[in-house]
Each structure stands twice: as structure tokens, then as C-alpha cells.
Specification:
The complex is a heterodimer of chains A (362) and B (76). Chain A has 362 residues and is of the alpha/beta class. Chain A has helices spanning 10-23, 36-44, 64-67, 70-80, 103-108, 119-128, 145-157, 172-180, 194-200, 206-210, 223-239, 258-267, 297-300, 318-322, 346-349, 354-361, and strands at residues 29-35, 55-62, 85-89, 112-115, 133-140, 163-170, 189-193, 216-219, 244-246, 268-275, 279-288. Chain B starts with 9 loop residues before the first strand and ends in a 5-residue tail after the last helix. The chains are: A alpha/beta (362), B alpha+beta (76). Chain A: Belongs to the HypD family.
Chain lengths: 362, 76
């Protein structure tokens, strides 16, 4: 078993789609898929066509590039203008519009900005460019946080003096709690993110089922996984017994990856964080601990931090899309002024952004 | 394309372990990844790879169980 084809088998997929049809109640059901990779795969594999029309999927805030604050992007742009700095980042970040520029535009003007696959590459690049300051843009959720943490530990151990991390790491549970308190949303269930849960486990979601009576299912990313996750949610809705189901048992346990969690807390501490569309949410992010502050770009380059700016540019409704209040095609810019080739907001830039997935696969 | 889907994890097979690192494969794709987040990894295990790090082992028994549940007849 290679864990891909078996979970894309069309016979199985159609069989689950039939089971879903058999148990879907005749009322409108709103399911939020929290993770951007779910959004992307849901559209990429055309799963919407297999499901009853009364199930509505709402894309959640699980696209890290989309929820990064304007201030974070502006700071990266300011730093990229310094001749002594090399910016390293994951791909999608390049085209995110800042207040007045983007990393892609700065690169065209001569800034040194490169795309890397792994934060570990940043360490190698730092070693071969001792006269340059290397800044890695560390964005992501709990899935990515331990990778960034291990890279920071490795940099300290190897005594690399010219590498710095500008981080915008976010936590899924606090933002889910925030969404539950928004009465406009009328959520019936959460499809919980499989790879965040590989790290944090299923236990952390229990308050959602217990206190808010909202069914949850931790779900994998192949078509079979996603449909089975929806089936397990509908079963809960039908029996009116909310719980945290785990569809992705081959990867996710109740307590998650304890070693990874320990690595995260060794390097980071919880702190409030700014989310596009949401504002500041208490204890929803991770900041680098003081013992690693030599690697913290915010501490090392305090004069390059951008000022706080309002995010809504030119009628962009990314904030409402991220909160699940509107579908991407409800935005007046969607598909007209804002397309993947010429994006106005981050939700259209990132592969995982809801607007991008809607545009490409609908 | 080196664009990243943020929480994307690819199941890859461990070919060789070298301290904190391992050589892994998926089809013709070969990579060296960091395995510090996992313990007790063996050659032949499948791991989920995210931004150059193995974030979790894939459990073959559980995977079979998931498929078995799907393949079973369902009554409503």
C-alpha cells in the first residue's frame, strides 16, 4: 500500500457518495472545512458534484498565507529592500499584495527573494552566504511550527549567525473557538484539519462537541477521506450526538505527536496574533522564546517593522471569505478585477485560498 | 512547481536512515528529510512528509481498517 491510489479508488468514492445521499437529512447543512488543503482537494477532485445540494461547504481560515496580516507582508517587503538581506520563503508568499508592493515586484526591482521548499534549505544558504543576512518567512499552523522550531534549534546548534526567522505561526483551536462565537455563521459541523491534527491530536477539539454541540471529524485529504469524513459528520447530525470523530486514524491519534509538541514549546510560546479578517485573537499564535531571540527577525530588525495598516484594499472581501460569511463568488471583485493572474487579495493568490480554488475548479 | 500547499503532507517510503535524516521515496521522487520529530523509525515505514520533515508515521493497520470500513456493506 502506498496510501494514495487506494484512497482515490473511484468505486469506493462513489460508494461513500451513495451512503452520504442515503443519510443526508432534508434540511440545509453548513459544514466548515477549516483547512485550505481540504478546500483545494474538494474542488480539485470535483467532490461537490457527488454530494446532495443541501450540504453547503464553507471554507475556513486554514490557509496560512491568506490569514497573514498586512503588517507581516509589509514588514517582509521592507526587509527585502535592504541590500544585505536575502529573503527566503514558501512560493505563494511572493505574490501576496502588500499595502503598496509585493515581494514579486521587489524581486523584479532587484531585491534578493528566493523560494525554498524547506526551512532547512535556509540554513544551507546562510552558510554559503556568510556576508548576507538570511531571513526565512516562517508562516503556517501547527503542522509547520515544529519544522520551523527544529530549524531554529539547528541554527543555534551550528552557531549560524546570519539566519533570522520572521514568523507568523498560528494555532487552529483559538480561531475555531472565535468562529463558534460568531452567531452569523450558523455552522452545523467542522471538518477538522488532518495534518494539524497529526501534531495536536483529536483531544483538543473535544470542547467544540461538548460545549458547543457541534459535530467534528478529523479528516484526511484524499477523495475517499474527505467523503468519509463528511459521512461521519452526517451520522452525528442524524443521531444528534456531537463528538470528535477521527477518519484519519492512519496518521492521527488522540494525543498527536508528543515529540513535535515538545519541540514547539521549547522554541515558541503562545501569544496573541493578528489574523486577516479577524483582527487580534488572544493566544492564537506562536512567538519565538527569548532564549532564541538572536534568530528572531522581529527582535533583530526592530526598525524595519511595518506600521499597522488596515487590510481592506479596493473592495476586497477576503476577510469575510476567511470567516465563512460569504462564498468567494459573492465578492464583487471575484473573477473580474481579481483573478489568479491578477490577484487583489491573498485568498486569490494562494493555491489553498478559497477564491483561488473556486476560480480554478468551478 | 515549488509552490507550497501549506499543510500538504506526502506519504513517502523510508529507504535509509542516517541519524536525524532519512532518504525517502515516492514514485520516482527521492528526498532527504529530517526525522527528528519521530522515534523508532525503520526502513520500509511510510512517513508523512511536510516541508522536508517527517511529521508522523503512517499506520498500515489503521489504513487497512479505514478501507475495510468503507468496503463493508452499509445499512441505514
Amino acid at each position: 500500500m502506498k496510501y494514495v491510489d487506494e484512497f482515490r479508488n473511484s468505486k469506493r468514492v462513489l460508494k461513500i457518495a451513495d451512503s452520504i445521499k442515503a443519510i443526508t437529512p432534508h434540511k440545509s447543512i453548513n459544514i466548515m472545512e477549516v483547512c485550505g488543503t481540504h478546500t483545494q482537494n474538494f474542488h480539485r477532485f470535483g467532490l461537490a458534484k457527488l454530494l446532495p445540494k443541501n450540504i453547503r461547504f464553507i471554507s475556513g481560515p486554514g490557509c496560512p498565507i491568506c490569514v497573514s496580516s498586512q503588517r507581516y507582508i509589509d514588514t517582509a517587503i521592507i526587509l527585502s529592500r535592504r541590500k544585505d538581506i536575502i529573503i527566503l520563503t514558501f512560493g505563494d508568499m511572493l505574490r501576496i499584495p502588500g499595502s503598496s508592493s509585493s515581494l514579486e515586484k521587489e524581486r523584479a526591482e532587484g531585491a534578493n527573494v528566493s523560494i525554498v521548499y524547506s526551512p532547512l534549505e535556509a540554513l544551507t544558504i546562510a552558510k554559503i552566504n556568510p556576508d548576507r543576512k538570511i531571513i526565512f518567512l516562517g508562516i503556517g499552523f501547527e503542522t509547520t511550527a515544529p519544522a520551523i522550531a527544529l530549524s531554529i534549534i539547528a541554527a543555534k546548534k551550528a552557531r549560524i549567525k546570519n539566519i533570522f526567522f520572521l514568523t507568523s505561526l498560528k494555532l487552529v483551536l483559538p480561531v475555531m473557538r472565535y468562529l463558534l462565537l460568531d452567531k452569523r455563521l450558523k455552522l452545523d459541523a467542522f471538518l477538522c484539519p488532518g495534518h494539524v491534527s497529526a501534531i495536536i491530536g483529536t483531544k483538543g477539539y473535544e470542547f467544540i462537541a461538548k460545549k458547543y454541540k457541534i459535530p467534528c471529524c478529523v479528516t484526511g485529504f484524499e477523495p475517499l477521506d474527505i467523503l468519509e469524513g463528511i459521512y461521519l459528520i452526517l451520522k452525528q447530525i442524524r443521531s444528534n450526538k456531537p463528538e470528535v470523530a477521527n477518519q484519519y486514524t492512519r496518521v492521527v491519534t488522540k494525543t498527536g505527536n508528543l515529540k513535535a509538541k515538545r519541540i514547539i514549546s521549547r522554541v515558541f510560546k503562545k501569544s496573541s496574533a493578528d489574523w486577516r479578517g479577524f483582527g487580534n485573537i488572544y493566544n492564537s499564535g506562536l512567538k519565538i522564546r527569548t532564549e532564541f531571540s538572536l534568530f528572531d527577525a522581529e527582535k533583530v530588525f526592530p526598525n524595519s517593522l511595518a506600521a499597522f495598516t488596515l487590510e481592506s484594499t479596493k473592495g476586497c472581501l477576503c476577510g469575510d471569505v476567511l470567516k465563512g460569511l460569504i462564498n468567494p463568488d459573492n465578492c464583487p471583485l471575484f473573477g473580474k478585477a481579481c483573478t489568479p493572474d491578477n490577484p487583489v487579495g491573498p485568498c486569490m493568490v494562494s493555491n489553498e485560498g478559497a477564491c483561488n480554488a473556486y476560480f480554478r475548479y468551478r | 512547481m515549488r509552490s507550497l500547499r501549506m499543510c500538504l503532507g506526502i506519504p513517502m517510503k523510508v529507504r535509509k536512515i542516517n541519524g536525524d535524516f532519512a532518504e525517502v521515496e515516492s514514485g520516482r521522487l527521492l528526498r532527504t528529510i529530517n526525522i527528528q520529530m519521530l522515534s523508532g523509525l525503520k526502513t520500509g515505514d511510510y512517513v508523512l512528509v511536510h516541508v522536508g520533515f517527517a511529521i508522523q508515521k503512517v499506520d498500515p493497520q489503521r489504513a487497512k481498517e479505514t478501507l475495510r470500513l468503507v468496503d463493508e456493506p452499509r445499512t441505514f
